[in-house]
């Protein structure tokens, strides 16, 4: 084999591998991607039951209902609309009413969001008011210290 | 003032600014000297490299001192520390925040510069000077970032009495050592990048270059492997979801340089042995470090929200992005200009060791491209259309796994093929034994695990093929049947280090794959509410909830739930998962409880208590999961053996030096 033939055969193999990989990626993008929606978007335009959704919003105060069992119900709100969510399992440590969360799962035909995973923000900073004020005075205040932001 | 040695912080700050000046000199003088063939200028490179290391180390120690002494007049310490924190987490708090972690990044960067200066005694003077010069550019850029945009030495005028404590999630031994390991890997590739740029600048690239670079590639790769494995194990036991890899963008950020670094490690081998694939190897060196920079950008800029994104400050993001663009575009432009001038290397047939390594590179870079696309596509889409999508584990499992399967299949063949022109049929015949063994064990393992999972058996087949195939070369070379056990034992220990290195590296991949397949298919998850005194059967185990007790830790209070784990009425282990609340921040945090049986694990996590005194409990059974991380350790061991072998050869003059020294000492005595 000459250098040229060798190079051509290598390019052919590389082309086939890349084509297969591209096909895989495109196929996976069609089916395996979840959309991030807020409650208003879900209420006004309900997604198909097989479409994976990431729902983001605040846990509505007073909505968390835990029965004797391991399933928990609550509502997620964006201030305008709210969506009922059910989740079976252990909630993240930072989950509480009024807290921003992201739930992953599907909207069932009854319009209830069935979450298989709930994420609460890791990076919440709690800060006593006095300290916050002193920080503001000294010019080190950053907006993300806002509680629950 | 309660802080006696408060000058130390200003000293550290000053050292950092001096280091910036020194790295500016380091980026100009040696390169200028190399281009003008001025030996006085090239000779400054090692001194400047040592000096910048010493200065950054001083700065780092100053910050560490502030953490240990809880000097809350330093803003960074105030934000991330607390007097009640155990000492180890006071120290690890230094890099448990944005500013400190970038300082650690820079420290490792200049450390590598100093190591090249120290160990590169037999490098050609101009290559060494240009390499350290390029390293100087990188240090300069990042020191400028630290000094102007990410200064850890800022003071508060009125120091608070108490700090705000480190994020409880980061107060863990795994996270104390994960960042340094990962950074040594990430940043280690900067040296390889500098070597590549230097070779392009000087227009000289030969097999010797690959021989000098390989130990650095291997060292970085080993640390990156260990760092990723550590991070994965941490996520597994700390986050309480039982998952060990989430295809989170932050994980991908470290995984992409690992993939290209693995490709680089293999192509550098071809270059060293056969003087071939030179342009490609240099390209990979540039790409690998570019991906490391991209990883730093993704993780530290706040583009992604995760436990790693400490602060969201757009100015910093733009600064890192600028550094990223300058270095990637600059090096690629240099590559485009200089690469065509490089001499072509040796020829090889498609079926040969070189051919197999080219395939390895092809598949690894394709896999990198798939991960790259999946990681960045959501960011690009959101910037372009405003649509927020998330590309999660299903996407990566569907794209990454099929690309890696051919790699597993080809690995044992590549090991046995001859350089230049190989005999595929001959190799296949030699591997027949390994193939039969794989087939039988895959079926046996599938039968033993139960449940008729045909896909699991196929998955076992791929993993076991990698395991037996990689060990087959050793079996093949020892010739036990022909020469008898005594001589076979001798041959076993006398095998070349490269054989061991490759076999262990590939064995590690196989073990990790076996762990992944087994856990993914056979793991069980049970979520239930347990009341005190209640016993429930979970799979093959009986679990009794005995109740809970409160306990006080050094800087938290916790409620420990106690469970008895039994099998066939035999007591196995007491599980004690907890829920903690950290005193300083008031933040809650759960700790899991895990017990190993062989390579398998049983994993307990608890959640909230229900009104009637029950507790939400999550129980996993994870068969063979430990193999995932053991595989990584075995891989790293393979890399280590490869590295010490190189060292011996690179340092050919070194034993002679030692000998001379000994003689001199002998004469003196």
Put the structure in a nutshell.
The complex is a heterodimer of chains A (149) and B (669). With 149 residues, chain A is of the alpha+beta class.
Written description of the protein model:
The complex is a heterodimer of chains A (149) and B (669). With 149 residues, chain A is an alpha+beta fold. Chain A contains three helices and seven strands. Chain A has helices at residues 3-31, 39-44, 129-137; strands at residues 33-37, 53-59, 65-66, 71-77, 82-88, 100-107, 113-120. A five-stranded mixed barrel of chain A has the order 2-4-5-7-6. In chain A, a hairpin with a 4-residue loop joins strand 3 and strand 4. The longest helix of chain A has 29 residues, at 3-31. Chain A is elongated. The model of chain A is unreliable at 122-135 and 140-149 (pLDDT under 50). In chain B, helix 3 (44-68) runs parallel beside helix 7 and helix 8 (173-202) runs antiparallel to helix 9. Among the domains of chain B are: 1-171, no CATH class; 431-522 and 627-639, no CATH class; 524-622. In chain B, the strands form two sheets. In chain B, strands 3, 4, 5, 6, 7 and 8 form a six-stranded antiparallel beta sheet that branches. Chain B is globular, with a radius of gyration of 27 Å. With 669 residues, chain B is an alpha+beta fold. At the A-B interface, helix 1 and strand 1 of A face helix 13, strand 1, helix 14, strand 2 and strand 8 of B. Strand 1 of chain A pairs antiparallel with strand 1 of chain B, so a sheet runs across the interface.
């Amino acid at each position: 084999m000459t250098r040229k033939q060798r190079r051509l055969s290598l390019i052919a193999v590389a082309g086939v591998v890349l084509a297969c990989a591209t096909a895989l990626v495109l196929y996976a993008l069609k089916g395996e991607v979840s959309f991030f929606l807020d409650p208003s978007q879900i209420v006004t335009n309900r997604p198909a039951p097989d479409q994976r959704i990431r729902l983001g919003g605040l846990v509505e105060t007073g909505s968390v209902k835990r029965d004797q069992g391991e399933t928990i119900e609550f509502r997620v709100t964006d201030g305008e609309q709210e969506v009922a969510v059910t989740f079976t399992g252990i909630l993240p440590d930072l989950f509480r009413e009024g807290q921003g969360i992201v739930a992953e799962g599907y909207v069932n035909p009854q319009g209830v969001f069935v979450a298989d995973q709930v994420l609460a923000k890791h990076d919440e900073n709690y800060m006593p008011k006095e300290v916050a004020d002193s920080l503001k005075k000294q010019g080190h205040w950053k907006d993300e210290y806002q509680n629950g932001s | 003032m309660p802080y006696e040695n408060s000058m130390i912080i200003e000293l550290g700050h000053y050292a950092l600014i001096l280091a910036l000046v020194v790295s500016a000199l380091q980026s100009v003088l040696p390169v200028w000297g190399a281009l003008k063939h001025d030996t006085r200028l090239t000779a400054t490179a090692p001194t400047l490299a040592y000096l910048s290391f010493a200065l950054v180390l001083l700065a780092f120690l100053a910050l560490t001192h502030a953490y240990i002494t809880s000097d809350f007049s330093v803003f960074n310490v105030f934000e991330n520390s607390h007097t009640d924190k155990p000492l180890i987490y006071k120290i690890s708090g230094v890099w448990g925040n944005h500013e400190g972690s970038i300082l650690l990044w820079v420290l490792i960067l200049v450390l590598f510069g100093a190591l090249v200066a120290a160990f590169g005694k037999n490098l050609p003077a101009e290559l060494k000077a240009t390499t350290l010069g390029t390293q100087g550019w990188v240090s300069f850029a990042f020191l400028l970032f630290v000094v102007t945009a990410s200064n850890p030495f800022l003071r508060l005028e009125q120091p608070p009495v108490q700090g705000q404590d480190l994020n409880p999630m980061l107060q863990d031994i795994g996270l104390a050592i994960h960042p340094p390991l990962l950074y040594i890997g990430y940043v280690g590739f900067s040296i390889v990048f500098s070597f590549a740029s230097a070779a392009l600048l000087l227009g000289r690239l030969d097999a010797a270059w690959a021989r000098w670079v390989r130990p650095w590639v291997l060292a970085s790769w080993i640390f990156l492997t260990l760092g990723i494995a550590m991070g994965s194990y941490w996520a597994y036991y700390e986050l309480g979801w039982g998952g060990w890899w989430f295809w989170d963008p932050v994980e991908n950020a470290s995984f992409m340089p690992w993939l290209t670094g693995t490709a680089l490690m293999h192509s550098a081998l071809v270059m060293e042995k056969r003087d071939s694939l030179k342009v490609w190897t240099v390209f990979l060196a540039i790409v690998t470090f570019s991906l490391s920079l991209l990883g730093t950008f993704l993780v530290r800029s706040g583009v992604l929200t995760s436990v790693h994104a400490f602060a969201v400050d757009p100015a910093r993001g733009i600064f890192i992005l600028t550094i990223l663009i300058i270095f990637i575009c600059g090096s690629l432009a240099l590559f485009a200009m200089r690469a065509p001038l490089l001499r072509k290397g040796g020829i090889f047939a498609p079926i040969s060791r070189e051919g197999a390594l080219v395939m390895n590179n092809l598949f690894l870079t394709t896999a990198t491209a798939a991960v790259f696309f999946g990681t960045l596509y959501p960011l690009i889409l959101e910037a372009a259309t405003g649509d927020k999508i998330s590309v999660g584990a299903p996407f990566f499992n569907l794209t990454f796994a099929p690309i890696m399967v051919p790699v597993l299949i080809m690995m044992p063949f590549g090991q046995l093929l001859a350089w230049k022109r190989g005999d595929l049929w001959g190799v296949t015949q030699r591997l027949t034994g390994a193939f039969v063994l794989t087939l039988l064990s895959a079926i046996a393992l599938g039968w033993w695990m139960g449940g008729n999972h045909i896909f699991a058996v196929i998955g076992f087949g791929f993993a076991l093929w990698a395991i037996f195939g990689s060990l087959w070369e050793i079996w093949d070379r020892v010739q036990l049947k022909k020469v008898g056990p005594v001589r076979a034992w001798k041959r076993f220990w006398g095998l070349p280090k490269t054989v061991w290195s490759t076999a262990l590296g590939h064995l590690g991949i196989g073990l990790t794959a076996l762990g992944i397949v087994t856990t993914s298919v056979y793991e069980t998850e049970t979520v239930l509410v347990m009341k005190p005194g209640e016993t429930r059967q979970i799979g093959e185990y009986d679990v009794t909830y005995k109740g809970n007790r409160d306990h006080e830790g050094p800087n938290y209070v916790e409620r420990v739930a106690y469970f008895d784990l039994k099998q066939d009425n035999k007591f196995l282990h007491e599980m004690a998962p907890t829920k903690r609340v950290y005193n300083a921040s008031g933040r809650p945090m759960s700790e899991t409880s895990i017990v190993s049986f062989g390579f398998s694990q049983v994993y307990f996590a608890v959640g909230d208590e229900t009104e009637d005194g029950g507790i939400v409990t999550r129980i996993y059974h994870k068969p063979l999961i430990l193999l995932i991380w053991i595989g990584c350790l075995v891989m790293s061991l393979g890399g280590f053996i490869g590295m010490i072998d190189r060292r011996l050869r690179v340092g050919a003059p070194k034993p002679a030096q030692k000998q001379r020294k000994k003689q001199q000492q002998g004469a003196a005595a």
